[in-house]
Amino acid sequence: MAGRLAGKVAIITGGGVGIGASIARAYVAEGAKVVITGRREEKLKDFAATQPEGSVAVCAGSVRDYDDCVKMVSTATEKFGRLDILVNNAGIDPAGTAVDIPLEQWHDIIDTNVNGAFYMARLAIPKMKQTGGGSIINISSLAGVRAIPAMVAYSTSKAAIQGMTNAIALDYGSDNIRVNIISPGATATDMLRNSMTGLASALGTDVDGALEFMTRFCPINRAADPDDMAPLAVFLGSDESSFITGQNILVDGGATIVDPNGAATSSGGAVWGAA
């Protein structure tokens, strides 16, 4: 039986690990041909070797480099003949407040998380128009809709994705090009686990304990697995979502519906509002 993405070709930036690899795996299972990109060629090749022969092409490079982005899009059209889906997943998350973040890190984050997604969309759109449309899926974060302490550049970059998504969705909807956002909550990728080492040390626990502590007030009180993002990415890449564009879909275990003040009060043994 043909998969939901049969005949489609996708590029997934940051596709060798974490959420990108989970989406790539799901896309191949649903019949797509996939180009995975990233700065670490060995990671890309390791992942590609786990997939059926001929289903995954590798293109090493950085989305911060426009010439590398050109190469990524060219790889899709040269290897597989077309481009239907772009998943902008590559991202970095160094910490820092407005005063203490090094300016070099600020520029690195904006160049990767915002400019990289823009470069790839700019290059992908003409290819999608040639074959009657396509789907761009921007992987953002809850940090784009609420603040995270000492993460000013990351939060800014993810908030910018919302405006860019809306603008591109508006400009190219008539070309049957849809643009949507997946905003994960805390997801147990290597990137997040590395970020949790400081909290783990402060709590006197390990990284798993830190993740449990961080998600204790969420309705689904656990960190997401990268695979939790893949089904939505399949849906948004497929024709099943043909009338959905300009949307930011939160995959956060309910984190954004929680009032942290009330949650903290309840965790102390009190009932909010009770005498």
Backbone structural class: alpha/beta
CATH level 3 topology of the largest domain: Rossmann fold
Tally of distinct domains: 2
Mean pLDDT: 93
Tally of helical runs: 10
CATH class of the largest domain: Alpha Beta
Poorly predicted regions: none
Strand order of the largest sheet: 3-2-1-4-5-6-7
Rg (C-alpha, Å): 19 Å
How big a fraction of the residues is strand? 5-15%
The residue fraction in helices comes out at: 40-55%
Give the terminus-to-terminus CA distance.
61 Å
Total strands: the figure is 7
Write the CATH architecture name of the largest domain: 3-Layer(aba) Sandwich
Biggest sheet layout:
7 strands, parallel
Shape, principal axes of CA atoms: globular
Mind explaining what this structure looks like?
This protein has a seven-stranded parallel β-sheet with strand order 3-2-1-4-5-6-7, sandwiched between helices. The chain folds into two domains: about 10-185 and about 225-260, 3-Layer(aba) Sandwich (Rossmann fold); about 190-225, no CATH class. The chain is built from ten helices and seven strands. The mean pLDDT is about 95. Helix 3 (about 65-80) packs parallel to helix 4. The protein has helices at about 20-30, 40-50, 65-80, 105-130, 150-170, 190-195, 195-205, 205-215, 230-235, 260-265; strands spanning about 10-15, 35-40, 55-60, 85-90, 135-140, 175-185, 250. The protein is globular and about 55 Å long. About 45% of the residues lie in helices and about 15% in strands. With about 280 residues, the chain is α/β, with parallel strands linked by helices. Helix 2 (about 40-50) links the parallel strand 2 and strand 3.
